[in-house]
Amino acid sequence: MSNDAPVLTSCLAPISKDGLDALIAAGKANPAAIKTVKCRTVAEGRFRHLNFIRDLPPHIVDEPPVLLGDDTAPNPSEALLAALGSCLAVGIHANAVANGVVVRSLALDLEADINITSVWGTGDTTPKPVGFDVIRVAVSFDADAPRETLDALIAHSQKWSPVANTISKPVALSVTRTEKAES
Q: ∠64-49-116 over CA atoms, to 5°?
């Protein structure tokens, strides 16, 4: 895995322990609560897409030139890795804070193998797995805890990560057509 990404060397910006405790209490008080998250994806041209989430500026997804894109943003598969890495990092950090572990730095390097010869179903469509065959995540962090505790934080984060679980278990998916695409 590449270690080219910058690594923060100072302490991570703290999260509110009181806020975390309130989220923990709310989850325990209503364990069946469901929240619907939404994203509106609008094709901008070529393979560049604007993804609108809440009231945030658009999250852009594009393809690299080798896949006929303009290379202005991560491609969908890279965005999935980013979502997984961020979700795991949130879980590690939150559980560290919940357990009184001070984290000075945290970095996750993710890589995945994918066969792209089907070219989105227009190329070689002989039977083969579509999507990632394997995802590898290497976590490095400096924290005030023994190695066993850090390993337990990583394992716990993987077990309870919504993104990791969405990737690793079958999930119902419904893709339907509406009458008119709105911009």
A: 40
What's the CA gap between 17 and 98, in Å, rounded?
7
Q: What is the CA radius of gyration of the chain?
A: 19
CA distance 3 to 135: 17
> For the segment 150-181, what is each residue's pLDDT rounded down to a tens digit?
999 999 999 999 999 999 998 999 999 988 76
Q: Does 108 score more than 90 pLDDT?
A: yes
Checking phi first, is residue 54 left (phi over 0); if not, alpha (psi -120 to 50) or beta? left
Tell me how far apart the alpha carbons of residues 155 and 84 are, in angstroms, rounded to a whole number: 14
Q: Tokens 């609008």 identify what position?
A: 42
Closest CA to 96 of 9, 8, 17: 17
